[in-house]
Design brief:
The complex is a heterodimer of chains A (393) and B (91).
Chain A (H helix, E strand, L loop, with lengths): L7 H4 L6 H8 L2 E5 L3 H13 L3 E6 L16 H5 L4 H12 L4 E6 L7 H5 L4 E4 L4 H14 L3 E7 L2 E7 L48 H4 L12 H4 L3 H19 L10 E5 L4 E5 L29 E4 L4 E4 L14 H8 L5 E3 L4 E7 L2 E7 L5 E4 L4 H11 L3
Parallel strand pairs in A: 1-2, 1-4, 2-3, 4-5
Antiparallel strand pairs in A: 5-6, 6-7, 7-8, 9-10, 10-14, 11-12, 12-13, 13-14
Helix pairs in contact in A: 3-10
Chain B lengths: L1 E5 L13 E5 L3 H11 L3 H5 L11 E4 L2 E2 L15 E5 L6
The chains are: A alpha/beta (393), B alpha+beta (91).
């Protein structure tokens, strides 16, 4: 359903005329995580008319998501639909003019750069620090803006990371595409260069990265999670819409309007603060944007198992999660093999098996990319053992 | 000098659920020590064994990060507000 009327109310805004709308339609955004933040961001960007939205999420829709994750409904819960797929379906109904690339996958160092290739902005819909520091590494390495947001309880936080341009020396698929979308004035396309190129017109001065402001994440288990501390739907929605607003500025040639402060909100306690972080940009002092050391991307801090805090579950990444990111596991034969161990169901997107070991019940959910979530334990070793025993990769 | 320290939600279990705590001192460091003497369980959360603020603990004096002022030696005056701001993981 395409009509110039669709964006009429948006185009009445002085900064968002037809040229800005065209720029947005030519832009690509990477959204990692499609939960409470991600669904709101995805809906805002899709309604606004972004050209392409790449949605990456590793989870399935569960009943406890419906309180705040605006793209999902009870049918998705019954069908155990992967969030990325359910979101793609719903977003397609909202605006068929937007290309939605859905990836049911764990965003990790093996696929991060491939998924970010060709994207003009990286938007944060994740629920954990490890992925966020990985996103920051990817953003700084590629010189792609990164819109951080987080929310838990009744409070939230938002910050836009504007890294210095620095195209990756390894030219991946789509490398260099779209970088000029950020420039206010049209510039000729330049071929990718391994060095910062002064000819790449940017309309912002670089600022602090996530590690400039928050040097390292707190130790595992010490930060609150939505599963343990709860979360207020509208509070996450506010953060997500702040993120969507900043993303729209970046993708419509309005980067000069980007909020350069750290925004913290608690709508339940009636606070909204904007903290000055401009002094945090001291590239010489930062290992990431200064030293160009990407600890979360290059492996030093990348893990192969994640404990899903508060959920009594561990995610195990496939040992052979291919760099090409393609499916590596044929679920049907594994389902057949596991039926003698307990109740097994599977569809194109996942296999789920109820397993009992030493009188303890576990639920194994296996995805075609070889990743599994083991419910019933928060111990990585136990989860890995179950994975190895029943999946055998 | 009396300053107000804003305690983030995850640490309120160590401050009897108080969102703000009054602390005494002429510098950020002294105010933090004053805070920790009132609520000793906070010490390990905020500082390492040598008493330095942990790397993932951000302290803002009014609306500016102390790391980019004089760090813990940053002077405070009556009525200033110190905020402990952790990054937020959920979403």
């Amino acid at each position: 359903m395409s009509s110039p009327d669709r964006y009429h109310r948006q185009q009445l805004l002085p900064d968002l005329g037809p040229a800005a709308q065209q720029r947005l339609a030519a832009a690509s955004a990477l959204l990692v995580g499609c939960g409470a933040l991600g669904t709101v961001i995805a809906e805002s960007l899709t309604r606004a008319g972004v050209g392409r939205l790449v949605v990456v999420d590793r989870d399935l829709v569960e009943l406890t998501n419906l309180q705040r994750q605006v793209l999902f409904d009870e049918n998705d819960v019954r069908a155990a639909t992967p969030k990325a797929i359910a979101a793609q379906r719903r977003l397609g109904q909202i605006n068929s003019g937007v290309t939605i690339d859905a990836h049911v996958a764990d965003f990790n160092p093996t696929n991060a750069e491939r998924l970010a290739a060709g994207c003009d902005v990286i938007v944060d819909g994740t629920d954990n620090f490890e992925t966020r520091y990985l996103l920051n590494d990817v953003a700084v390495k590629r010189g792609t803006p990164y819109v951080y947001g987080g929310a838990v309880g009744t409070q939230g936080m938002m910050m836009v990371i504007l890294p210095a341009p620095f195209p990756s020396p390894c030219k991946g698929e789509g490398e260099g595409e779209g970088l000029n979308v950020l420039a206010r004035h049209d510039t000729p396309q330049h071929s990718p260069s391994p060095r910062p190129s002064p000819s790449r017109e940017r309309e912002y001065e670089p600022g602090p990265c996530l590690r400039c402001v928050f040097d390292s994440p707190p130790p595992a288990g010490s930060a609150e999670t939505c599963d343990t501390a709860g979360v207020l739907g509208p509070a996450v929605g506010i953060v997500a819409n702040l993120q969507a607003t900043e993303t729209l500025k970046l993708l419509t040639g309005n980067a000069d309007r980007v909020n350069r402060r750290l925004v913290t909100i608690d709508p339940w306690r009636n606070t909204l603060r904007q903290l000055d972080i401009s002094n945090a940009y001291q590239p010489g002092a930062c290992p990431c944007c200064g030293g160009r050391r990407f600890d979360y991307l290059d492996g030093d801090r990348a893990s192969r198992t994640f404990t899903l805090c508060g959920r009594n579950a561990v995610q195990v990444a496939a040992p052979a999660n291919g760099a090409n990111g393609g499916d590596v596991v044929d679920l049907a034969p594994i389902a057949a093999r596991l039926t003698s161990h307990g109740n097994v169901t599977h569809n194109d997107y996942l296999l789920r098996a109820e397993l009992t070991e030493r009188d303890t019940k576990y639920q194994l959910t296996l995805f075609p990319d070889g990743r599994a979530i083991v419910h019933g334990t928060d111990d990585a070793t136990t989860a890995k053992a179950i994975y190895t025993r029943y999946v055998g990769l | 000098m009396a300053v107000t320290v804003r305690i983030p939600t995850p640490l309120r279990k160590f401050t009897d659920d108080n969102e703000t705590v009054s602390a005494e001192g002429g510098t950020v460091q002294e105010a933090i020590v004053s805070l920790q003497s009132q609520y000793p369980a906070l010490k390990e959360r905020l500082c390492d064994d040598s008493g330095n603020l942990r790397k993932f603990v951000n302290v803002f004096l009014n609306d500016e990060d102390i790391r980019f002022q004089d760090g813990p030696a940053t002077a405070v005056k009556d009525g200033d507000e110190l905020s402990i701001i952790p990054a937020i993981a959920g979403g």
